[in-house]
Amino acid sequence: MAACKRIRVTGWVQGVGFRAFVRRKALMLGLAGYARNMPDGSVEVVAQGEETAIERLIEELRASHFDIDSIEVVEELKDCSYRGFATL
């Protein structure tokens, strides 16, 4: 089933290649959307695709070598129509 989720990742996730890592994993899982730095030091990830692929992305982020404090699904989005996966 297709889904679209806004995910907030906190920790030491800016300036360390985290967004590029998210993009690589998302594309490998067939997801669309984006990852962008936020002013508070977190990274916002919007992932669109199969529910199981989004859950797998979250698992991959948790298992990564990055210093992540938390990963939170902030919002279930409707009417997403992303193509590809961007780093903003």
Description of the structure:
The chain has one domain: 2-Layer Sandwich (Alpha-Beta Plaits). The chain has 88 residues and is of the alpha+beta class. It has helices at residues 18-28, 51-63; strands spanning 2-12, 32-37, 43-50, 67-76, 85-87. Helices cover 27% and strands 43% of the residues. It has a five-stranded mixed sheet, with helices on one face. The protein is built from two helices and five strands; from the N terminus they run E-H-E-E-H-E-E.
Short description:
By secondary structure, the protein is an alpha+beta fold. The protein has a single domain (2-87), classed as Alpha-Beta Plaits.
Give the beta-strand count: 5
Determine the fraction of residues in helical runs and give it as a percent range: 25-40%
The shape, in one word, is: globular
The CA-CA distance between the termini, in Å, is: 27 Å
CATH topology annotation: Alpha-Beta Plaits
Mean pLDDT: 96
Structural class: alpha+beta
How many separate helices?
2
**Low-pLDDT windows of residues:** none
β-strand amount: 35-45%
Spatial strand sequence of the major β-sheet: 4-1-3-2-5
Question: What profile does the largest beta sheet have?
Answer: 5 strands, mixed
Rounded to an integer in angstroms, the radius of gyration calculated over CA atoms is 12 Å
Order of helices and strands: EHEEHEE
What is the CATH-assigned architecture?
A: 2-Layer Sandwich
CATH C-level label: Alpha Beta
